[in-house]
Amino acid sequence: MKVREKVKGSGIWWIFISHEGQRKAKKIGKDKKLALDVATKIEARLVLKEFNIDQKNENPAPTFDEFSKIWLETYIKPLRRASTYERYETVLRKYINPVIGKLSVSMVKRKDIRNMLLKYHTDECSRSLICLVRDVTSGVLGYAVEDELIDANPVTGILKRLKLEPEKKLQIAPMTSEEVSQFLVACQKLYPEYYVFFLCAFRTGARLGELIALHWSDLDWNKQNILIKRSFRRGVVNKPKNGKTRLVDLSDQLIESFHNPSSTTVF
Fold first, then answer.
1. How far apart are CA 72 and CA 79, in angstroms?
2. What is the pLDDT of residue 262?
3. What are the pLDDT digits (tens) for 21-57?
4. Terminus-to-terminus CA distance in the chain, angstroms?
5. Which stretches of the chain score pLDDT less than 50?
6. β-pair type (236-238, 231-233)
């Protein structure tokens, strides 16, 4: 039995009850003393086994497995990329649901999540995978909080507690100008049909999917720029990764290669 503000600093007091695997939150109001009195009376009735928490047994909470499918279909699928949906579905199917999928969402405890993450750490799974397992689990349970199936997300802060935070990103080591020149010389000699494509990649910094999705109409010869406004991935054309279009300048060399790729020099 807990008495606290659901939103800290709001001045609105709630009673949070956890009893025999069931949870219930009850809003009392701005009177903290009243909330404490009500909590004391409810606790006494629970001790006497005379209190039925909103008859939860008639409408039991879904299992984590069941609710994760609801989360995927109603939240992730319409609001995220298809690749994100596929990645999350795979993580749930292979790593999360085999461990906690049969538990009711209201019965998933912090220790269950801790043990699951430690298991994958012991199995020497990559830190990035462990973090993804944490993120997806948190997403499902956060959605359960919004649906008022549980009072709080038990995943919050767990990686920091276990000291399993994401690894620092590796320093990117881009190709040097000499390496780029060598690559383009070899490409022009061995695979000339791909030369302009790779030159465009090096000179614009566009992502692979953005390059594949380019149309001739995206090039403005007068202003010497390319409008990046779409990306291709897994057979589907979408907006760029960050959802924003952008203009990228065209170098004189790149313009020349578009017009006459066979006569373009690398340098």
1. 10
2. 58
3. 677 777 777 888 877 887 787 777 776 665 554 444 4
4. 73
5. 53-57, 266-267
6. antiparallel
Which pTM does this prediction carry? 0.56
Q: How far apart are the C-alpha atoms of 192 and 30, rounded to whole Å?
A: 75
Structure tokens at 37: 């009195």
Contact status, residue 89 vs residue 80, Cβ threshold 8 Å: no
* pLDDT tens-digit map of 48-84: 665 554 444 455 789 999 999 999 999 998 888 888 8
Task: Name residues whose C-beta falls within 8 Å of residue 146's C-beta, 6 or more positions apart in sequence.
Answer: none
What is the distance of C-alpha 4 from the center of its chain?
Answer: 30
Q: What is the pLDDT of residue 261?
A: 60
99 within some domain = yes
Position 133 in a domain:
yes
200 shares a domain with 149: no
Sheet holding 13-19, edge to edge: 2-5, 13-19, 22-29
3-state helix vs strand vs coil in the chain, percent to 5: 55, 15, 35
In a domain, 171, yes or no: no
Domain match, 221 and 244 both: yes
CA-angle at 67, arms to 63 and 73, nearest 5°: 155
Which residue range is the domain that position 11 belongs to?
Answer: 2-58
Domain count of the fold of the chain: 3
